[in-house]
Design a protein that fits this description.
The protein contains 13 helices and no strands. The longest helix has 28 residues, at 50-77. By secondary structure, it is mainly alpha-helical.
């Protein structure tokens, strides 16, 4: 009798784990990947413009996904919904580039907390684009979340940091881009959406990247490659997580990234977390968690 090889035993043991536990592990790995990627973005952003870094993110992404797109062939990639694809890739590219700019120019904890305001904008987008009916309790949670955003903007300072507005705009843009996926889902498979997103991102960001171009040198090429791998790894882990676990059970573990951001910012970049960030971030997280649980409870 042949004995199962180690890989088969590990795979079998993995599949025996409860779906939610596997989801938590996946989302935890994705969170670590994105937190480590933020280190690279903030480090390289001191010499290479975020426009260029974002361009490389899409160029590397399409290279990594090329075998999948090749197997799909022209028939699998053909679409009749050009308007939706163009709108989504434009919004998502703005959101992706905006968060790169925020990570480079803001404290990591602040940039991450503002990014987590995305579900608040998703509620608004769902009402205006999908004509969804939103419960009163979800509206109250959304208003509370935006209050947290205002707190983090440090209202007593008198002047709003323009990079804060960019971070909020990135969350807004990506929220609307995600809603576009729901409009496209009935006819457009995920890999087709990814294809147009990456090709369009390269085309859209090439002109501004050329305008600010700074040729990477030495190890910078390797670090840029790791940004592409890291963002792709994070995306895959999150997709896997939500495909095997319940959103209300695994979703909260994404917010561990805030802790990573605070520790990384303090240990590597000498950043401190002030009271406004703690209070505003807590309100944003609490509101988005409530919205996520309310979404799961919907019939």
């Amino acid at each position: 009798m042949s004995t199962p090889n180690p890989i088969s035993r590990v795979t079998g043991a993995w599949l025996l784990l409860p779906g939610n536990l596997r989801g938590i592990i996946w989302i935890s790995m994705g969170t670590v990947a994105l937190a480590l990627t933020d280190i690279l973005i903030k480090t390289l952003g001191q010499t290479i413009h975020p426009f260029e870094l974002s361009f490389f993110r899409y160029a590397i992404g399409i290279t990594l996904l090329a075998p999948i797109f090749w197997r799909m062939g022209p028939a699998g990639l053909k679409t009749k919904r050009w308007g939706l694809h163009l709108t989504r890739l434009f919004l998502a590219s703005i959101g992706q580039t905006g968060i790169f700019i925020a990570v480079v120019n803001l404290k990591l904890a602040d940039a991450t907390a503002f990014w987590f305001s995305k579900p608040l904008f998703t509620t608004v987008a769902a009402v205006f684009i999908l004509a969804e009916l939103v419960s009163l309790r979800r509206w109250l949670a959304t208003v509370a979340g935006f209050a947290g955003v205002v707190v983090m903007m440090r209202p007593g300072a008198g002047v709003v940091d323009p990079y804060v507005l960019i971070a909020i705009g990135a969350a807004f843009s990506m929220a609307f881009a995600n809603i576009m996926i729901r409009l496209m889902a009935p006819t457009e498979p995920p890999n087709r959406i990814l294809f147009y997103y990456h090709v369009g991102g390269v085309a859209l960001l090439a002109p501004p990247a050329i305008w600010v171009w700074q040729t990477p040198v030495g190890a910078e090429w390797g670090l840029i490659g790791l940004i592409g791998v890291g963002t792709m790894t994070g995306m895959i882990c999150f997709v896997r997580a939500f495909s095997v676990g319940e959103a209300n059970a695994i979703g909260p573990f994404e917010y561990v990234r805030l802790i990573y951001a605070g520790l990384i910012g303090y240990l590597l970049f000498g950043e401190t977390i002030d009271t406004w960030t703690l209070i505003g971030g807590a309100i944003i997280v609490g509101s988005t968690l409530f919205i996520a649980r309310d979404e799961v409870r919907k019939p």
